[in-house]
Description:
Blueprint: H1 2-13, H2 22-50, H3 58-71, E1 84-88, E2 91-95, E3 98-100, E4 108-117, E5 120-139, E6 142-161, H4 164-173, E7 180-184, E8 188-189, E9 203-206, E10 211-217, E11 223-228, E12 231-238, E13 255-259, E14 270-274, E15 288-292, E16 295-301, E17 305-310, E18 316-322, H5 325-333, E19 337-348, E20 361-370, E21 375-384, E22 391-397, E23 414-422, E24 425-432, E25 436-443, H6 444-449, E26 457-458
Parallel strand pairs: 3-7, 6-10, 8-14
Antiparallel strand pairs: 1-2, 2-25, 4-5, 5-6, 6-7, 9-10, 11-12, 12-13, 13-14, 15-16, 16-17, 17-18, 19-20, 20-21, 21-22, 22-26, 23-24, 24-25
Helix pairs in contact: 1-2
Amino acid sequence: YAVYVFQFLCYSVWPERSEINLVAFLIFCIGTSVIIATLVQGPVQKWWKHYTRARLAVPFVLAAVLVGVALLPDANPNPDVAVFIRHDNRMLDTRLPLVDSKGSSMGLLMNPSLAVHDGRVLFTARRHKLEVTLSNGWYNHSSASIEDQTWHSDVLLGTADLDVEAWARWPTSGQAPFQASLTPFFWLRTPENQRWRHLCVPEEYDQVNNTLVRHVVTGPEDAKVFLHNGSISVSFNSLPPLGEERCSLGQDVSQMYLASEVSMDGKVDSIGRHLQCGAMDAAEKNWIPFEHQGKMHFVYSPLPHKIVRAEEDGSCSDVFSTGFEPLAALKRNNSHLEIRGSGQAVFVSDIVATPSLPRPHFLAALHIFDSKLKTYSHFLYRFSFEAPFNILQVSSQLPLVEAKATESPGKPFAFVSGLVVVNRTAVISYGSGDRDARALVMTLDRLDELFTCAGAMTDHPGNVSSVNASAVGSTSSAER
């Protein structure tokens, strides 16, 4: 009986991915069962027979213990990551006070995005958890091991009251002006009015181990909340919600989607529509949304600075494409660097707080991925408020808190996912190590200094700073 019970536990910890050596597995399973039966089952069975009255209390004691455990507060899921870092008297880094309404057992929050609308702070974040399961199956008409890498992924939404004065004090007080509980975006629907589930499943076959690896994602990923014509919109990337059977070969890749007129409380369903101006056979993500003269736009790529105009039905078209010589030179001299977008773009018009660019402009973020070192470096940048929306300045590197992902042995990293400016206070929201929802908070004049210090870039004639490519991906002293 012990072998029958523990065979599943033994199988779950068995390290072999290919076909299991039956003799070795049986020795392991039987040996484990004998040890547990001797050291645990035998003594407990004798106690159970001897104390006939005392055992009547066992169900009640067990129930009380389970209730008590359920009432315990969630443990800190990121004890190795600093909760709060003070950079100077105008800039800090902090973990955002966002909680999952379903509890931390469902997964970790990451990549938050913020916006402000009608006296409320709007939040989106991604919740994810990796589960790996092994099974035996078939591939190309022969037996093979099947490894399902299942990312339980959800977009969560929430709101909180906006305290404008407390927001302005945030960089100096260190106190976040809100707390928010986020709820899964369960009212997100496909155009066919189905729940956003049953996505395409990319597969890779490992011939050496005779293993078919299936990358299963259960829902939408990194969302960005922004405003369009006074209503709330959410853009996100996702594998196409077509199911395993309907995905064409080569098209089982992430695409960009848009949900317009989103109800943050779920009273009205939201339809996610495919943004149709990207490639169908290549991964699309990291588009930067912004609004100009009532029209919805996205920065499709920072280099070239390609702008697309989108409609609420998902149709979109290319409208502008410009260059930025300092970034172009960096790319020419370092082909292993990939320059991508991050977060949202926000309109800034404050000549007092932004003396390095005393005119209306858009503020956005970009990141540089080093394909050799597998590192991310993040920067703010400014682009023109008027068409063709050309880049004007790029800041020095942002001092983000980096962490290692729990699911992989790679290097520590961070990923900017949002940007909002309220009452001369900028909040750059980001995920640290795919497991911590954080923000770099600073006054607007402190942010302006990032565009004037060493490492910043500008396209103004006669004022082009030299860029040391070796610094890309480096870690600031504040992070160590």
